[in-house]
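Structure ticket #2291
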Amino acid sequence: MQFIHPISEDTIRPHMGKRVCAVLCNGTYYYGVVTDVRDGHLVLGGNSSQTATCRSKTTKPETKSKAVTISQFFPGALALSLGTLAFLFLI
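Resolution: structure written out below.
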């Protein structure tokens, strides 16, 4: 795994088309292919020719309730706000 830091549109853009693991601040993580990064959102999946299924799993029990914004922009795509990402790894 390669750690992508800092998490910004400029540092994510060179990894378009590659598989990543995105870890949110609440411990939830998502796997998928980076299809776009814009307007402060990382888009995983997106069209039928790419892996559009993103799996999520909570790694630890949630002790504090935090609001996490996950948006759905395109069918088959998952858009995550860059502000909710704790870590981003290239896999």
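Closing remark: The CA atoms of residues 24 and 84 lie 6 Å apart.
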